[in-house]
Amino acid sequence: MLSLRKPLVLAFGLAVVMSLLAGCSSDKADKKYAIATDTTFAPFEYTDSKGAFVGADLDILAAIAKDQNFQYDLRPLGFDAAVAALESNQADGVIAGMSITDKRKEKYNFSDPYYNSHIVVAVAAGNDAIKSYADLGNKTVAAKTGTEGAKYAESLAPKYHFKIHYFTDSPTMYEDVKTGNSVACFEDSPVMAYGISQNNGLKIVNDSNEKSPGSSYGFAVMKNNEANQKLLAMFQAGLANIKKNGQLKAIMDKYNLNYDF
Q1: SS3 of 167-210
Q2: What's the whole-model pTM score?
Q3: What is the pLDDT of residues 21-38, one digit of tens each?
Q4: Which superfamily, per CATH, for 116-215?
């Protein structure tokens, strides 16, 4: 009897182990990362005329996920909400035209840059009174909360004596400028350039007395989270591959964005 039972016990044990391994394999294959993004930051993420949510960030993420064979759920939340979701572990990563800064590096780990940008100031297309930042004195300007544009505006406010009105999205900020509630807004250069090309009713004002700060966009995850670091490693490897094979340049060309990598 013992000789008969041993093979049965071994077979049963092997079946249990194989079942557990299959379950682990399935869990890995079925793992979907929650990736948060902005809602309106064209041409990086926006809703097109057909109602589809599109943009360069979305194409980059899709290309990298395909290259690295991982799945994700995209969550368009708005920039502030996307960052909040990341910090509360409701999202595994953020891709939202997010500038890589030293301050942000204290909390997040970033991929290598996939786009280089700088900040511009824009006014209503028919406004000829604002020709330099000095003309903003004692007036109200607009900026988007939590962005490098807002940070730049805050750095200039004491020098040029203007007030800042904060917004959570770009279209509402632009409307505030066009209606005259704010005389100007601070925005990322590729976003403003794209908006102007789409007749958003604004124009860029350059001031040779001030050097606009530059920044690079990257994919962000929280530090000290093992799953996040695995996701970042896959994004990093995929980004290197799409840079090398020309996919990243093709995406930038699709949205008329400068490519300088």
Answers
A1: ECCHHHHHHHHHCCCCCEEEEEHHHHHHHHHCCCCEEEECCCCC
A2: 0.78
A3: 344 433 444 689 999 999
A4: Periplasmic binding protein-like II (3.40.190.10)
Fold observed for domain 10-26+33-114+218-254: D-Maltodextrin-Binding Protein; domain 2 (3.40.190)
φ, ψ (nearest 5 deg) of residue 201: 85, 15
Closest CA to 219 of 54, 45, 93, 103: 93
Q: Where are the domains of the chain?
A: 10-26+33-114+218-254, 116-215
pLDDT at 167: 96
What pLDDT does 212 receive? 84
Give the HSE-up count for residue 119: Cα atoms under 13 Å, Cβ half-sphere: 24
Check: CB of residue 191 under 8 Å from CB of residue 256: no
For the chain, the C-alpha Rg in angstroms (whole number) is: 24
DSSP alpha helix (H) spans, the chain: 2-30, 56-68, 79-87, 102-105, 148-160, 170-178, 189-197, 226-244, 247-254
pLDDT at 224: 83
Token pair of 118, please?
A: 């700088």
Query: Per residue in 167-209, pLDDT tens?
Result: 999 999 999 999 999 999 999 999 999 999 999 999 999 888 8
Q: What parts of the chain have a pLDDT lower than 50?
A: 1-29
Helices 189-197 and 170-178, axial angle in degrees (round to 10): 60
